[in-house]
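Changelog-linked ticket: NDP example.
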Amino acid sequence: MEKIANYINGALVPPGSNHYLDNYNPAKGEVYSLIPDSDEKDVEDAVAAAKSAFAAWSELPIDKRSAILLKIASLIETHHEELALAECIDNGKPLKLAKTVDIPRAAANFRFYGSIITGFSSESHMTDVTAINYTVRKPVGIAGCISPWNLPLYLFTWKIAPALAAGNCVVAKPSEITPMTAYLLSKICIDAGLPKGVLNIVHGLGSKAGEAIIAHPEIPAISFTGGTVTGKKIATIAGPMFKKLSLELGGKNPNIIFEDCDFDKALSTSIQSSFSNQGQICLCGSRILVHESIYERFKDSFLEKTRNLVIGDPLADGTQIGALVSDNHLKKVLSYVALAQQEGGTVLTGGKQVHLNKGLENGYFMEPAVIEGLDYRCRTNQEEIFGPVVTLTPFKSEEEAVLYANSTEYGLSATIWTERLNRAHRVSERLKSGIIWVNCWMVRDLRTPFGGMKQSGVGREGGVEALRFFTEVKNVCVKI
Ligand code: NDP
């Protein structure tokens, strides 16, 4: 059985303890490879390698640093079939999604940061006519990057690429549930000629390897994407150490459908925003709020489309719903369907585990669920489920839509469907979400700041915000 290796000091190495964890193929419910169960010692080795590499990497001329990152982007593109297949087997997502979204976006992350670093500049200000102030931005040193399992390579590279571009060395940990593409990325980095120690990938459990990265005194900046509960725990460790922290956390995103929307577009995009990647995208719109005048029409059409979604082998052409990422996660999502019923909701379709055939009998598949009849304040409508489960709720007025939308502790993203320009702007203004899409979903511009409000996180990723995060700032004031 394949053993994944850590990537430390430019080499693929076993964990010091020689202990491994099982890595499951969620479509089969079977172990198919082994993951290093790394600990503090492995993180210590990674930090030592990063420390040794830092001076040379941070002082490398920017065009040379850029060229290496662009080479990594090209190699991700060259290996995209292999990476997409690995991600599909590791995660359970349809192969088509990995091929068209995850892997191209991972390459784009390296290409984007490899490019914009060459134009990254500091500011200079003339203060009246008495002084010149200029700002110097230097890499922080070693950045700790920790990512989740839902978009494994895409979110991993979303952190690593700006950290490296800004001149830092990195110690990174992918989710223990989906380590394979990060492992393949190690090999790509070796082929791309990334100097040894610049990027170090330590595999293993969040509670062990992850916490060792967070708590390490020589890692001054932490970029984390994952659940809000984990984010809080990380903040309690990193906060008193005064580390720079970027936390991209959970969401419970509203998808607001006004009566003046383009109905067909709202309908088809809502199917995607509800169930893409089995609903396991932090930006999925899990609360669909529909104006009462079109509620029944929308409901009927949405249910028909949901029932027609093809649940199947992630590797097969035509599969739209693959497996959930793990047995534990499937159980959690199913428990929310049960909770919704206890809370008085009606499951209009789906919500049951599916047992496929031809070797997939033990896979973690479920029918996408649509639930109605719930109060907007109940737990099902307040807590992140992170699976193929959406609620439908009618609203009477714009006021009520905004009230429902803003009622959760999260504020990651929101989608608005309306053809009225002033309404689009007015409602966007009132929503407490870090990202608002009008008449679209998941459209990405890498130059824009990305992140959530409230319990969805602190800090912003994307564009120059990420480069700034991974630098420390000094202001020099010269009297003239
Ligand atoms: P988790 O919070 O469970 O884990 C995220 C990462 O943190 C994993 O690598 C995990 O390792 C690690 N980790 C867990 N505990 C610790 C710890 N104590 N110290 C350091 N690291 C730790 O999230 P999931 O992987 O379950 O991902 C799903 C969550 O991610 C959802 O809440 C989703 O909304 C959120 N998310 C947010 C996004 C955003 O941009 N805002 C984007 C995508 C997802 P291990 O796997 O070993 O537990």
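Closing comment: Example verified and attached. Residues 447 and 463 are 4 Å apart (CA to CA). The mean pLDDT is 98.
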